[in-house]
Every structure is written in C-alpha cells, then in structure tokens.
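Write out the bound-state structure for CO-5-methoxybenzimidazolylcobamide.
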Amino acid sequence: MLDYSFLSQAVIEGDWNKASQLTAAALDSGASPQHIITHGLQTAMSVVGEKYSSGEYFLPDMLMAARAVNNAIKVLEPLLSDTGMPTLGKVVLGTVKGDIHDIGKNIVAMFLKGVGFEVFDLGVDVSDEKFVAAVRKTKPGILGLSVLLTTTMPSIGSVITALDAAGLRSDVKVIVGGAPVTQSYANLIGADAYAHDGGEAARVCKELIRNKGVI
Ligand code: B1M
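---
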C-alpha cells in the first residue's frame, strides 16, 4: 500500500496546498480516489477529531484541516463524478438540521454521482420542511441524510416523521449515515438503509433502486 503518512500529516496540519499536491501525487502513483479518501483523508480527520477531544486542537485547527481535505477532494472530484453513464435516478441529499459538517456528505455525493445518480445536494443544516419540499418537488427515488453530531441524530427521525405526515414516506427510500450513526440506529428510527462510507452508500443506493424495480 502507498504511504499516505505525508498526505495525512498535511491534512492534520491544515496545509491545504500540500494536501492537494500530495493527493495529485498519490493519483499519479496509481492510487485510486477511494483508497486516498479512506487511507489518506479520513484517517487524518480521525486524528484531528482525537486532538480536538483531547484539547490539543481547537475549532480553528478543525477548520484548517477541513479546508485541507476539501482541497484534496477537489483534485479527486473529476475522477469520481464524471461518468458517461445513463442516470440511475435522483437522490436528494443533505446534512440534517443543526449540523454543519459536510465533508462526509460531499464525499457520499461524489460516489453517488460516480455510479450514475443525479444528486440534488441541499447543503447543511437542512430543516425537515426543506427536505420534505425537495422530495415533493424533485421526486427522488432516494433521500440521503447525513449527521455528524450525537445531538443532531434525532433530526433524522424527525425528517422521517415529517415525510410521513406529508404523505410522502412510501414514495422515497431513506438512507442515513455519518460517524455516530449505526445500522441499529437506522433500524430504530425507521430508515430503509444505512451506509458507513461513500463507497457503501453508492452500492446500497443501487440496491435500493433495484429493489424498487427501477433498474
Ligand atoms: Co466537528 N465534531 N464540531 N467540526 N468535527 C466532530 C464530529 C467531533 C466527533 C469532534 C470530536 O469531538 N472528537 C464532535 C462531535 C461529538 C459528538 O457529537 N459526540 C464535533 C463537535 C463537538 C463540533 C462542534 C460542536 C464544536 C464546537 O462548536 N464546540 C461544532 C458543531 C457545529 C455544528 O455542526 N453545529 C463542530 C464544528 C466543526 C467544524 C465546522 C470546525 C468542522 C466541519 C467542517 C466541515 O464539515 N465543512 C468540524 C470537523 C472537521 C470535525 C471532525 C474533526 C472531522 C469530520 C469529518 O469531516 N470527517 C470530526 C471528528 C471525526 O469525525 N472524527 C468532528 C471526515 C469525513 C470524511 O468523515 O464525516 O464521518 P465523515 O463521513 C464519512 C462517513 O461518516 C459516511 O461517509 C463519509 C465518507 O466516507 N457518511 C455517510 C457521512 N454521511 C453519510 C451519509 C450517508 C452514508 C454515509 O447516507 C446518506
């Protein structure tokens, strides 16, 4: 396996120029975008999270690291998103209300586009009403909800309840994910599926659409 320690270190230090240069270099050495995300970028963000938890890092440090990851992702995006494939269907995606973390959601969006889904990204801190309105307007096969904070996890359940109240729940499959979410939590709140990373989200969404009889 390629040595990603320099790339991870650049992210941890929030050196965004170096992060994009080393990402490009990893691609040149034959690494796949998926491998770079998992072993170079996601690993680094776990270290950043640990440093924040232990009091070694503060909010600005997390922001610098986030900027470095976003720069690295920009290098990978054309490779993951550009497909000549016919569309598999629409996915409405967003980070739930109260939560502004979007790096993971953006990665999930890239993977979904990469396998041929048309993605409608609503951004972060998305209210139940906005999710419901987007489902009503866009008529996606799938709604994807991302959450990073334990305090905002209940928002997933409240989006599902709001879809129910609007009479739209049976029209759309709901997939959930994000660091604090588990399969059992997804089951508990009545989601249709859970994925632990972008690659799995793409695979599971294809499965959901296949089960709906669309492909
Ligand atoms: Co925040 N933050 N943060 N933060 N932050 C965490 C999540 C935290 C674990 C750090 C820590 O304490 N160790 C902690 C949460 C603790 C908890 O809830 N128990 C935390 C906290 C506390 C906070 C604040 C409250 C801090 C404060 O203000 N005092 C604040 C909250 C703001 C808010 O949302 N209201 C806050 C703010 C921020 C920044 C803005 C500084 C920045 C976010 C920048 C951005 O996203 N643009 C930030 C960051 C960077 C982090 C950490 C360090 C990294 C998150 C990340 O990008 N990971 C994070 C620590 C950590 O995660 N270890 C932390 C990399 C990313 C690729 O992984 O997002 O997990 P992830 O996505 C993965 C999978 O989860 C999955 O696939 C993705 C790709 O493989 N996935 C899905 C995600 N969504 C999915 C959806 C799916 C399927 C799979 O289907 C639809």
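---
The first strand starts at residue 89 and ends at 95.
The mean pLDDT is 93.
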